[in-house]
Specification:
Length: 214
Amino acid sequence: MFALVGRSIESLYQVARGLKTVFKHTVRPPITKNFPDDMPDLPGHFRGRLALAVNPQTSEHLCISCLQCERVCPDKCIQITSHKSPETNKPELIEFKIDHGLCMFCGLCTEVCPTSCIINTNDFEMADYTRESLVYDLKRLTLSQDESAHYFAKKELPMPKPKPPKPAAKPAAPAAAAKPAEDKPEAKPEVKAEAKPQDLPAAPAPESPKKEEQ
Ligand code: SF4
Ligand code: SF4
């Protein structure tokens, strides 16, 4: 009898706890968002679509083609094409491709980047119809100045310094033909004195046989 009463009280207590939770959430404002009309305010460290930032002040590209992100990527989904600039003698970016169909959004590439160029944005709406369209090239990856400024502030990244100006092109060496003639020491042709027959020492005349004195 006592056990039955105890179990009944315990059941009523559990029902009361459940009803309390129901009433509490009935009066609370809803936490669900009316997506996509109401976009969520994601934190700065959210790892969404990858992008390349530019300097928010000067709009110059921040990638220095160091290839660290390409090397560290475990999925090998980054492909960088660069060449050595003849002006600065440093690597210069030509093309940058990221296959978002392979990327697992681990964020390793963003951690090793020395210039904070490659970043994870808050964009997560990347659904597409083909795998090829998930490969983003340099143009699709590069953010605008305003977008870059937004992410630099949101991620609390230090503002990049402007790149040093390119060295002035060396003046071309003047052509040899353009040089004034007096600059060149005139090569005097070596005149070999021709040995004239009259200059040659006269050959001793053959001794005429002496006539015996009679
Ligand atoms: S987030 Fe990870 S998988 Fe994606 S490109 Fe960067 S390193 Fe590779
Ligand atoms: S690590 Fe940064 S600077 Fe280096 S190649 Fe990648 S994006 Fe460019």
